Amino acid sequence: MSILLAPGPVPVLKEISNAQTKEMITHRSEEFSKLYEDLVSRLRKYVGAQEAYVLTGSGALGLETLILNLCQKDDVVLCLPNGEFGDHLVTTVNVYAKSIVHRGIDGNGWNLERAKDKIDSAAASPNNAKVLAIVYNETSMGVKNNIKEICKYAKSKGMLTIIDGISAWPGTEFNMQEFYVDAFVTGSQKGIAAPPGMALIGLSAEAVARFSKRDSVPSYYCDLRRHKKRYELDQQTPNTPAVTLFWALQKAFDVLDEKGGLPATVKRHHEASEYVRKRLASMGFGLIAEKGFESNTVTGFFTKDADTAKMIKSKLASEYKIKIVGSRGKFKDNGLRIAHMGNFDMKNIEACLDAIEKILKS
Fold first, then answer.
1. CB atoms within 10 A of CB 42
2. Is the pLDDT of residue 125 over 90?
3. Whole-model pTM above 0.70?
4. Which of 25, 33, 208, 285 is such that its CA lies 20 to 30 A from the CA of 100?
């Protein structure tokens, strides 16, 4: 049996996978309304949202949904990317609005000290940026940005805050109200460890008011006014959802609660990340994330050259049946990533690290 340690899709527990095998129901039924109401109410509570929705589609669809509903073509959005997924965020913003972009250094994180003058400048510019958009956990290299202090300051400047939390939650501390976040998205195939195909979004009261008063939205499927209207009518979705995936997500929420809820999940991820970094450093590898900005859910590390990285990845797969992935950006050639995300088993993490140690000595 192989071991998958890629940062999503992550392994799915049998009980979560089996939840998809129930007899099919119509999405226009009382049974589905109860299912969706359970998912939405729990998600609101988990992330501290005023409103929450589950969309059939990837995390990228969820992020695009937030942007197209909350930003208009003449709006200016301050973006602070520091990796590939931050770059994707900028690309998405530019489809629907205008961006001011300050690109961070690969491997380095954003904190308020680094972001403050960027926020001040964007807020005071003739274009007057009204929105801040940033990735919480830059998956491509395993870097966690300090979004709480950044978003708090951006809100003090009158900005709406949009957070890509796709690889962060629930393995990283987060609450929309405490973090001053107006719009948040994560994906089902990451930390919640359900099958891929669902985007989970949370919205503040300010964000809800913003999209609710719009005359038009440049999408039909992603128009949150339709999702809000249908949910308020009968706790259903405006279009046919992936019903079987929704069952799996419900079971994934059950597992989260059974394992001690969010505090226990954050603690488990944090401890795993510290263990992985310690082991890798002891083997002589460099760690990609700047100290103080390390991800809870994925660790990026680099080797002396591209050939060594390729050899480790290849031998892990062929000799040990362990799958890890490469890094991106500056570390695309000689960087690797190990995910400790979702309902992972520490025995598998240890098996991977032990195998790397053996490969280095062979």
1. 17
2. no
3. yes
4. 208
